[in-house]
Amino acid sequence: MTLTLSINNDRRLQLAPLEIPTRLLLGPGPSNAHPAVLQAMNTPPVGHLDPAFLALMDEIQTLLRYVWQTENSQTIAVSGTGTAAMEATIANSVEPGDVVLVGVMGYFGNRLVDMAGRYGADVRTISKPWGEVFSLEELRTAMATHRPTILALVHAETSTGARQPLEGVGDLCREFNCLLLVDTVTSLGGVPIFLDEWGVDLAYSCSQKGLGCSPGASPFTMSPRAVEKLQQRRQKVANWYLDMTLLSKYWGSDRIYHHTAPINLYYALREALRLIAEEGLENCWQRHQKNAEYLWQGLEDLGLTLHVPREFRLPTLTTVRIPEGVDGKAVSRQLLTEYNIEIGGGLGELAGKVWRVGLMGFNSRPESVDRLLEVLRQVLPK
């Protein structure tokens, strides 16, 4: 081969093999993956239409139905992070002019507002202070006022650590003839969820939190009611990559090529879901609750105050109020650089006011709590 142009080598880096610090990830996500999940991710890839891989996709679908407690046939893992799965629910369910009512009680409710608006929705909102949740009566009043096509709620608000009760909301949505869309990003795998019993029509999550996997293969599900709305659309889904009319032909019996799946991430997700099934879903929920309560008690023993009332507190994510006079960012930076422990800071209205501590998936263990409390005793002012 003869080159007629000279190569610019200015950006030709000479790097050593990759080395990344080992951290204990106790922030809002990602969490540390189970060693078996990491091992699965290192399995040599096969083709995305290989019969062995298609069988693995079927296993993922079945296990996602288990952890979500649903029989929805349209249940898949989106090739992308949880935000891609979030956008998939909006892209497939919203048509221009649809009234979408979003319950905003934190940062990710606002993200739903932004996304729905971009797909042409007539977006309406109801709001609660960050750390509080909606009552069924408040939702009923808003539904009667706005008569939405879709009600969107965040089950586990990652920015506040609050759990939105969903019991009775699905019945309310059927009364007002609308779909219920729910964000389960920080609840799936660690917080009790009963999608079918609660009447949830659209839900999404991520792989790197309660499921204890690496990010990039994100659960998504649609009820028969949501699928019917999709099939009756007047226009094509505006997002080609996330169009479930196309993706269902890859995940379904047709097995028609749509995109090259992140094969090794699906290996990891399958293994993470297998571990939950092996533990048992109820046992997994109880483990998260038990370890969260152990953390809450330890934090209170240190004189710290928790942001969310106990009855609405997530077992997967705890918001801790930063004490007066303490530089929250400096403490987080010290934990990371000196002790290899990651915790999160506040977002939006809670920026600079709270730390966010995650106990999710493999990290939901007493050892994680003990390590964090030990370090906090050393770095917080006496």
Task: Provide structural commentary.
With 382 residues, the chain is an alpha/beta fold. It is built from 13 helices and 15 strands. It has helices at residues 35-41, 51-68, 82-93, 107-118, 136-146, 169-175, 195-198, 224-231, 244-251, 263-279, 281-301, 328-339, 366-379; strands at residues 24-25, 74-79, 99-104, 122-127, 150-154, 156-157, 162-163, 179-183, 202-204, 217-222, 305-306, 317-321, 341-342, 344-345, 354-358. The strands form four sheets. Strands 2-10-9-8-5-3-4 form a seven-stranded mixed β-sheet, sandwiched between helices. Strands 11-12-15-14 form a four-stranded antiparallel β-sheet, with helices on one face. A hairpin with an 8-residue loop joins strand 14 (344-345) and strand 15 (354-358). The radius of gyration is 22 Å and the shape is globular.
Count of runs of 4 or more consecutive helical residues: 13
Number of strands: 15
Average pLDDT figure: 97
Please outline the major beta sheet: 7 strands, mixed
Strand order of the largest sheet: 2-10-9-8-5-3-4
Shape: globular
Radius of gyration: 22 Å
Structural class assignment? alpha/beta
Report the end-to-end length measured between terminal Cα atoms.
Answer: 70 Å
Order of helices and strands: EHHEHEHEHEEEHEHEEHHHHEEHEEEH
Strand content: 15-25%
The share of residues in helices is 25-40%
Contiguous runs where pLDDT drops below 50 for at least 5 residues: none
Provide the fold topology.
Layout: E1 24-25, H1 35-41, H2 51-68, E2 74-79, H3 82-93, E3 99-104, H4 107-118, E4 122-127, H5 136-146, E5 150-154, E6 156-157, E7 162-163, H6 169-175, E8 179-183, H7 195-198, E9 202-204, E10 217-222, H8 224-231, H9 244-251, H10 263-279, H11 281-301, E11 305-306, E12 317-321, H12 328-339, E13 341-342, E14 344-345, E15 354-358, H13 366-379
Parallel strand pairs: 1-13, 3-4, 3-5, 5-8, 8-9
Antiparallel strand pairs: 2-10, 6-7, 9-10, 11-12, 12-15, 14-15
